[in-house]
Every structure is written in C-alpha cells, then in structure tokens.
C-alpha cells in the first residue's frame, strides 16, 4: 500500500491526480483551502474505489506553521507517507512595474515560500522515514524568463525546479537515505488557473490527458520530466536557445 499526499487537491491537476493515483491503487492525503471540494472529491473517489483510504485536511500553504502541522498529522494518520506532491500553486500576476505588486507578491509567496515550506516539511518526514518520493510541480514556463502576466509566475517555477535539483544533489551525498526527487514541468493543461484565458494557448490539453502524463512521470519516479512529452520535451530544448522575441510569444 502506498500513500501519496497532494497539496492543491481541490481542483485542476491536483484533483485529477488524486483520481488517477487512487485508480492505480494508492491511498491519499489531500489538502487545500476549499475543504468542501475536498470532501466531494473524497466521496467521489471512495465511490469509484471503495478499497482506498482518503483523508482530507484544510491547508493554506502560505501559513508556514500549518504546513508542518498538517503534513505531520497526515503522517500520524497513515503511519507513513510514501510520496508528497507539492502541487498547490497560484497563477495571478501582472507585468512588473504596472501597479500590481499585490498580485505578483501573492503568486511569489504561494509558489516560492509556500512550496519551500511544503518541501521542508515533506523532506523532514522522508528523512525520518529514511525513504520517500518528493514531487515538485514546476512548469514549462520555468525554462526561460517570460513577459506579461507570467513574469513572476515563471520565475517562481524556476525556483521550484532548482529547489528540486538542489535537494536531489544533496541527497546524492547521503547514501543511507532512499529518497527520490521528481521535478515535473507541465505544458499548458486546462484547469481553473487558465479557464478564463480567452486567447488560445499553444498545445493546450484537457485536464485528464495532461494529468495522465504527469501521473506517468511520477509513477516512473522520473527525476525531471517535461509533460506531455510531445511537444514539450523538444519545445523545452528549443526554448532554452530561441531568441527572447520568439519565446515571448508562447505566453
Ligand atoms: N494548468 C497548467 O497549464 C499548468 C502548467 C504548468 C504548471 N502548473 C502547475 O500545476 C499546479 C496545479 O495548478 P492547476 O493548473 O491545477 O490550477 P488550479 O486548478 O487553479 O489549482 C490550484 C490548486 O492550488 C491550490 N492553492 C492555491 N493557493 C493555495 C494556498 N494558498 N494554499 C493551499 N492551496 C492553494 C488551490 O486550492 P484552494 O484554492 O482550494 O486552496 C487549487 O487546488 C500549480 O502549481 C501550477 O502552477 C499548471
């Protein structure tokens, strides 16, 4: 039996990942701020997979103390947590210097400090267990600096990707620990984060399809995955080298 903790499980990728991992036989610890959504999701998953165990808790990832308390409470519920998916994220933003520091700050706080708190709490649990799988949801936007509303969001996702790689490097020097780190960089996947964007987004896939690619990379414990592989694997390589005036058109 394997237990996966998913943050930001009340909508989009997090909720769909919960469905797909439960169908694959995993038990779940789910959290987010909207607990009514989590309760509904729990009911839905248990109706489809009656053998599974699903626990839910309220969590605002910008509340540092709550992140540690909730992760420890889930660990106490299940005895062990095999995997943590740091998925909660915010996509608010405005071009830098246009008077919306509030929106950019909220995104930076949630996606950087919130992700760091989750990662600290998860890695503490894994160090105590001497095993575990840390999954960080970054974004293809982390590949390069991005213009418009996405500048701060993309920078936060670059932080997340480097955080994961740094921890993986740290753990390489600690042979007694069996802890894997996966950094996942999704391309455009339909979710609440982008459902109000009117402009067509390149290579957008629906939530189920996109999450299937994420789940496969997680289950394969890939250290680093751009998903869906087509077109985002080659696109990532191109993004690294293309001139900024071309890259900026991706947003
Ligand atoms: N969709 C895409 O195209 C795409 C692409 C690349 C990466 N991603 C990443 O995928 C992850 C999931 O996003 P999504 O696309 O599924 O968007 P979404 O539908 O908006 O889901 C975001 C989730 O994060 C949670 N969340 C936001 N702020 C939170 C906070 N302060 N505390 C706790 N939970 C919080 C939300 O739950 P509550 O509001 O209930 O708290 C919600 O469950 C994010 O990290 C996002 O950056 C998405």
Automatic annotation (TrEMBL):
<comment type="similarity">
    <text>Belongs to the short-chain dehydrogenases/reductases (SDR) family.</text>
</comment>
<dbReference type="InterPro" id="IPR036291">
    <property type="entry name" value="NAD(P)-bd_dom_sf"/>
</dbReference>
<dbReference type="InterPro" id="IPR002347">
    <property type="entry name" value="SDR_fam"/>
</dbReference>
<dbReference type="Pfam" id="PF00106">
    <property type="entry name" value="adh_short"/>
</dbReference>
<feature type="domain" description="Ketoreductase">
    <location>
        <begin position="2"/>
        <end position="192"/>
    </location>
</feature>
<dbReference type="InterPro" id="IPR057326">
    <property type="entry name" value="KR_dom"/>
</dbReference>
<protein>
    <submittedName>
        <fullName>SDR family oxidoreductase</fullName>
    </submittedName>
</protein>
<keyword id="KW-0560">Oxidoreductase</keyword>
């Amino acid at each position: 039996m394997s237990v996966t903790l998913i943050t930001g499980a009340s909508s989009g990728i997090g909720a769909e990942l919960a469905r797909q991992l439960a169908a694959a036989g995993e038990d779940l610890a789910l959290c987010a701020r909207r607990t009514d959504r989590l309760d509904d999701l729990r009911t839905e998953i248990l109706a489809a997979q009656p053998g599974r165990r699903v626990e839910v808790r309220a969590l605002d990832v910008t509340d540092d103390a709550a992140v540690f308390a909730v992760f420890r409470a889930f660990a106490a519920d299940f005895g062990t947590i095999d995997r943590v998916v740091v998925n909660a994220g915010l996509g608010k933003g405005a071009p830098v210097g246009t008077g919306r520091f509030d929106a950019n700050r909220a995104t930076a706080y949630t996606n950087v400090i919130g992700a760091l708190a989750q990662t600290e709490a998860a890695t503490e649990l894994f160090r105590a267990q001497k095993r575990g799988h840390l999954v960080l949801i970054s974004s293809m936007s982390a590949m390069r600096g991005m213009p418009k509303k996405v500048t701060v969001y993309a920078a936060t996702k670059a932080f997340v990707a480097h955080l994961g790689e740094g921890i993986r490097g740290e753990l390489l020097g600690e042979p007694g620990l069996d802890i894997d780190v996966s950094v996942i960089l999704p391309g455009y996947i339909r979710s609440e984060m982008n459902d109000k964007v009117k402009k067509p987004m390149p290579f957008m896939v629906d939530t189920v399809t996109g999450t299937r690619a994420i789940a496969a990379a997680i289950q394969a414990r890939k250290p680093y995955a751009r998903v869906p592989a087509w077109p985002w694997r080659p696109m990532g390589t191109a993004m690294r080298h293309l001139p900024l005036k071309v890259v900026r058109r991706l947003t």
